[in-house]
Amino acid sequence: MADEILFAFGLTLFAGLATGIGSVLAFFTSTTNTKFLSIALGFSAGVMIYVSMIEIFVKAKDALVSAMGVQLGNWATVGGFFAGILLIALIDKFIPKQSNPHELKKVEDMNQPAKVTQDAALLKMGTFTALAIGIHNFPEGIATFTSAIQDPALGVAIAIAIAIHNIPEGIAVSVPVYFATGDKKKAFKLSFLSGLSEPIGALVAYLFLMPFLNDIMFGVIFAAVAGIMVFISLDELLPAAKRYDESHLAIYGLIAGMAVMAISLLLFI
Question: What is the DSSP-derived secondary structure letter of residue 117?
């Protein structure tokens, strides 16, 4: 069991710190590869939607029906699913638009000269942007950790999808923090640290959820995880993918993500 927990923590750390990759892209490239990001974000959405509806939701329902009976179990599954959607929607709602991690940013924005540096108000805003990322990514850490504990192969798929999702978030943190401070090193540091909220989410799941992890608790958490990932995919990943590239690349990526996830699940039957 200890090895499974360490493995789940490692996956969550990998997914969270992918924000640092976005920062590196902002520092070492002059333009955003929009076609790649469009396909990658679509792929990530495809993985999340398919695994949520085909695998996670079904496992949640099986656990809850087994523990509560057919009628109550099905109602609890649906309730958990929409509770997850409500949670992530509320988090998005209360993050100011200018600090929202899913407002589109490009590497080119980093290469524009900062108009004001070392300004206290801008520094506060930039720091809050990184904090907003952390708050938003916290439930993703819980999702990755709990999924990996239940099914390591499923945890790997979710961690990879979230890591892809976090790359443009790293750009979204770096750009405003750079404008706030004029310091690329500080922008990278805050972007990198904002990803730590995901392993912190895993730690909270381990300390406060694991001791009570029976069939009902597991089912409700998994149903909520499915809702969170579907909302992230439909509200954030796909719109961002379409904004990065106007063609059908995002949808091609979506279908590819679903296909890869479907095949990987079949291989583990």
Answer: -
Number of domains in the chain: 1
Spatial separation of the C-alpha atoms in residues 45 and 234, rounded to whole Å = 8
Closest CA to 11 of 203, 144, 195, 166: 144
41 falls within a domain: no
C-alpha span between 51 and 43 (Å, rounded): 12
Q: Residue 19: give the domain boundaries.
A: 2-28+47-267
In tens digits, what is the pLDDT along the chain, a chain of 269 residues? 678 889 999 999 988 888 888 777 766 655 556 777 788 788 888 888 998 899 889 989 999 999 999 999 999 999 999 999 999 888 877 765 544 444 555 554 545 544 444 445 545 655 665 676 677 778 888 888 988 888 888 888 888 888 887 777 777 677 666 766 677 787 788 778 878 888 998 998 888 888 877 889 889 988 998 998 899 888 877 887 777 666 688 899 899 989 988 887 787 65
